[in-house]
Specification:
- The complex is a heterodimer of chains A (343) and B (300).
- Chain A is an alpha/beta fold.
- Chain A contains 14 helices and 5 strands.
- A 5-stranded mixed beta sheet of chain A has the order 2-1-3-4-5.
- In chain B, 34% of the residues lie in helices and 27% in strands.
- Chain B is built from 11 helices and 14 strands.
- Chain B has a 6-stranded mixed beta sheet, sandwiched between helices. In chain B, strands 2-1-4-5 form a 4-stranded antiparallel beta sheet, with helices on one face. Chain B has a 4-stranded antiparallel beta sheet with strand order 12-13-11-14, covered by helices on one side.
- Classes of the chains: A alpha/beta (343), B alpha/beta (300).
- Chains A and B meet through helix 8 of A and helix 2 of B.
């Protein structure tokens, strides 16, 4: 028993004397809860997003029968084309016209949430008499984007994020902790060379694994990339470099793996939810949407979807490429300026 | 002209002075020893020279000029303890470091010099302590350096591994390389070092050729006897003799009597019926010198 106590006490001391890690372990859950409370405080908890085609006030019937329903979140959008495009890309579950009755509505037939929201609208929110008088179902004429096709770019960008951040963050912190970096410092190797090697090595590994993943999923699930695979590869590489560079900032000075773990969680969780990997943040407050633009993964996910789902050319992704390039340069500069070889 | 010159080196960690105004010069082709107890400032001094740690003040000159990037091309470093990049074999580990330099030894030559032939294809995490130190030495030699820093390279090794490493260091010395060695093994320093400095509390307390220092500071011979053989009465008699000083060794098992007149001292012991069956006489060594200078043992 005394051996158990000896180790138990030593480990506890080790834990709380590493103040930075200890602090992060307390701060991290608090910040996540606080962040999610902010994110979903304004109707974000309503699972179905309905765009109302209006630039002015919402029709009283829609307001009463749809927007006041506990499960619908109404988002006013004035441009029908944009709304239909978002519906097609699973960012909205339904689009409703705001003109006189009967109201036209659109759903994406390949979206499970779209079908559920239609069912909810026609069976629960409105009576049988009302729905015959008030609703006319419309179909989307563009090529539908199937849910898996929409989800897949998000999943590979999420996998890339975890591999980039944790892969690079942990390995550098571990090497700093066990003296490998100190030994490398006593050679002509510069921090720039070291960091570039880290970035390229991680990039190569992520590209290889994702090429295998893409080929496997494409074969098993039968989906295809609408755009050029070469463009997809170029854009994915840029996105990966950007996320790895973000990992370098975390790894630049941290001394313990526990602290690195806390900080990486702090970055990956919000990024995963705000970059629309799993669900759209269409109905989130504007400041959250703006904040999401500062996260590289938002641009990566959006760009991948544009190439894979819509067949976009690299020229069509100029804003995503611009943001990712700027973020990469900023992250690399901060990371290399902060980088320390020794503890 | 020194290959490496250190001038007025000072290093503070907060309010603690780890290195206190140290100056020395190292001639090319010698093995230069930095000796001192744990915490004396040896590793800090050597890491400042290697560029790992920044000094608070002071100057370091390599070939009479401040260090520039080419300095790291010309030095080899073996730290007290370092991990290696994981999942590499011994051979791949050396190769990785070799590729960081413009000039380097051939890989096979390095493997041979450091006696790593038998383990060259083994995972670097699955080798013994002695083998790992030889691997670290091979890495330190990867760039065929002019100046090699060995920071306590034999600490924790068994006597056989230690002697094996000494042989390799001797072979490197014969190739005309300059070696800076920190150690607290006096035997190691006496065998390998041509010149030493002894550091205590961040200051140099002695500097020179080991034999000269010993001769200068510790004259006579050292008689060693089990301490239970020497009664209090005899110890008092020894205290009265001006040619004799004595103290207990680090283990407290032996009494060490330093004297210039060995015969007279033995006569005194015999006349007082001291059992001399386990008596040994030896010349002074660096451990005695350190004790003489600081009043404490080198390893404690």
């Amino acid at each position: 028993m005394y051996r158990f106590w000896s180790i138990f006490i030593a480990r506890n001391k080790e834990y709380y004397r590493d103040r930075a890690s200890f602090g992060w372990n307390i701060m991290f859950p608090f910040l996540i809860i606080f962040g999610f409370a902010l994110l979903f405080q304004d109707g974000g908890q309503r699972p179905y997003k309905v765009a109302i085609l209006t630039s002015q006030s919402i029709h009283p019937v829609i307001e009463k029968q749809v927007c006041s329903h506990d499960l619908f979140s109404c988002i006013p959008i004035s441009d029908k084309e944009i709304a239909i495009d978002k519906l097609n890309h699973h960012q909205l579950d339904m689009v409703m016209e705001n003109a006189s009755q009967p109201f036209k509505y659109w759903i994406n037939a390949s979206s499970p949430k779209g079908i559920l929201s239609e069912s909810l609208l026609t069976r629960t929110a409105m009576s049988k008499v009302e729905r015959n008088q008030r609703l006319i179902k419309q179909t989307i004429h563009s090529k539908p984007v199937y849910y898996i096709e929409w989800l897949f770019p998000g999943i590979i960008s999420m996998g890339m994020m975890f591999s980039s951040l944790f892969g690079i963050g942990f390995s550098i912190v571990r090497y700093r902790q066990n003296g490998v970096l100190k030994r490398l410092k006593a050679t002509p190797l510069t921090s720039f060379e070291y960091l570039c090697a880290q970035i390229l090595s991680r990039l190569l590994m992520i590209l290889l694994t994702n090429i295998i993943l893409y080929a496997g999923c494409s074969w098993l699930l039968g989906f295809q990339c609408s755009g050029s695979l070469f463009h997809l590869l170029i854009f994915f590489s840029l996105g990966t470099i950007s996320v790895i560079s973000l990992g370098l900032i975390v790894a630049a000075r941290i001394k313990t793996e526990e602290l690195a773990h806390g900080m990486l969680n702090m970055i990956t969780w919000p990024m995963m939810f705000l970059s629309e990997v799993w669900f759209s943040i269409e109905d989130a407050p504007m400041w959250i949407k703006r904040f999401a633009l500062c996260l590289p993964l938002s641009h990566v996910t959006r760009g991948l979807r544009l190439i894979m789902n819509d067949g976009a050319h690299l020229f069509d992704l100029s804003s995503e490429i611009f943001y990712l390039s700027i973020l990469t340069v900023i992250f690399l500069l901060i990371g290399s300026m902060m980088f320390k070889w020794t503890q | 002209m020194g290959l490496l010159t250190v001038k007025n080196l000072v290093k503070y960690y907060g309010k603690i002075c780890a290195v206190n105004n140290i100056s020395f010069s190292i001639a090319p082709g010698i093995c230069f020893g930095l000796l001192g107890p744990n915490g004396a400032g040896k590793t800090t001094t050597i890491e400042i020279i290697e560029g790992i740690t920044q000094p608070t003040s002071g100057e370091i000159l390599y070939n009479d000029a401040p260090r520039n990037r080419s300095f790291w091309e010309r030095i080899g470093v073996q730290f007290q303890s370092t991990e290696l990049l994981a999942f590499l074999t011994v051979r791949e580990s050396i190769q990785t470091f070799m590729r960081l330099y413009r000039n380097h030894f051939s890989l096979d030559q390095l493997v041979r010099i450091c006696s790593l032939e038998d383990i060259q294809h083994q995972d670097n995490r699955k080798i013994s302590g002695g083998q790992k130190q030889r691997l670290m030495l091979a890495i330190a030699l990867a760039n065929n350096p002019d100046l090699i820093f060995l920071d306590e390279p034999t600490t924790g090794l068994d006597p056989q591994s230690r002697r094996h490493l000494w042989e390799i260091v001797e072979a490197i010395k014969r190739k005309g390389k300059t070696i800076v060695l920190t150690t607290h093994y006096m035997e190691e320093a006496q065998i390998l070092c041509d010149e030493i400095i002894i550091v205590d509390k961040g200051k140099i307390i002695a500097q020179g050729v080991p034999e000269d220092l010993i001769t200068r500071k510790c004259s006579g011979q050292m008689i060693r006897l089990p301490q239970e053989n020497v009664s209090q009465h005899v110890r008092q008699l020894l205290n009265l003799n001006q040619d004799v000083t004595w103290h207990l060794d680090a283990t407290n098992k032996y009494i060490l009597i330093q004297t210039k007149t060995v015969n007279a001292c033995i006569d005194l012991l015999m006349n007082n019926q001291v059992d001399l069956s386990r008596l040994t006489i030896r010349p002074h060594n660096l451990e005695d010198l350190f004790l003489q200078l600081t009043g404490k043992a080198l390893r404690h």
